[in-house]
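Extended Data, panel c. Modelled sequence:
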Amino acid sequence: MIQLHIESTTKEQCQDILIFLLEESLIIEGEIRESDMVRKSEKGLIEAGKKYHLTSITRAIVFDEIQKKVTDKFGVEPMIYAFPLTHMESDWAGEIRKRVKGA
């Protein structure tokens, strides 16, 4: 299992990706959060803005499929990464295994 993270500069894109991943049976639920972001631009300027995070727990075996499908449909702007989960409540893990398709 992995904790999937997808970051975007728009809430709408995160919502569209969430719906897409649900329709593709690659996740069974997701959460979108907003956060403040400060970064240094390519021109060396300090910029502030908003960033949106889509998070979900899913099967590790579908990460490459998620990455390819999201990039093909939405472009390279949403950053996609994941963290491995080492422990998880067994009933919830079983539900994810049952409802998320295999690669």
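The beta strands are 2-8, 31-40, 46-58, 79-84. This feature is highlighted in the accompanying rendering.
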